[in-house]
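Running co-folding for 2,5-dihydroxybenzoic acid.
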Amino acid sequence: MDLQGLNQWLAERNLKGHWDHQPWSQTVRPHLWKGRDILEGLNRAGELITTEEAGRRTIQLKNPGLAAGMTNTIHLSVQLVKPGEIAAAHRHTAAAIRFVIKGTPNAYTIVEGERFPMREGDLITTPNWTWHDHFNGSDEPVMWLDGLDVRLVTHFGAMIQENFKRDQQPVEKPDDYSSKVFSHARPRWIKNSFAAPPYRYPWEETNASLEALKESAGDPFDGILLEYANPHTGGPTLPTFSCMIQLLRPHEKTQSHRHTSATVYHAFRGSGLTKVSANDLAWESSDIFVVPSWQWHSHENTTDEDAILFSITDRPATEALGLYREQTEGA
Ligand code: GTQ
């Protein structure tokens, strides 16, 4: 038996020699999805399938380098809820966020008995194991990005899900409850029972911060970059991933770096170019793209207007496992 024969003999038994350099693993590739394709697909799905049939009417993004999912950790989908529709209550060990791309008055995500309005640019968290359902009581569709750590959770074999006993959970808390509980003056008698509490970050507040900080130096790799802080700890949005918003000023060009965390981006406003290794990802408003772990990347706003990127990074998970590394050019 020669070495090739041995490799074959081992492969037939689901074994492989360290000398055999055929890759076992799949690789996340840099990629950009056109927002208009996703929205067209979602609108067509709106005519063909109900939320009742689908459970959730979402279009999932699939990385061309993977059999499933957008990265090995964070996953993105885009969801449509039509007027009058309900997406039924459930909870799971995967944590999720919603970033609203088309809001409307009277559409709500209900999380742990609190209803959170869904207006354009709002970020709403549904941390690990929190009950959540969605309802659109307006006469216009509502659409948002779903960001979940489902690939990471599935990797650990830890994806567990339960359905609520009814389609909708009861609303048990007053409106604006968590924005008051986690305000600058906090009730002394309420003890937070979540590692990360369900929370809504209204766009008008996020945007006001971006505007107020626009003249600052900013981050050399990311411009005016803000992290949505966990309102309880002040740390990353959620234990496994963190959400960011960044403003790139007209023609701003950032320095290149790489790090052992993957990031998924949504172009919320404006257009630009993100270079990832040898790939030029040219984005415009509503596009989605991915920067895989440990690939050199830099951003550029190619226009005369501000550009705004929403993103999710798995950095908190890599940091928790002691795997986070960062490298800048020349270092
Ligand atoms: O809306 O609760 O894209 O539970 C995947 C799982 C959305 C949701 C997804 C979910 C949801």
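Result summary
Residues 168 and 261 are 36 Å apart (CA to CA).
The domain at 27-183+194-328 is CATH 2.60.120.10 (Jelly Rolls).
Job closed.
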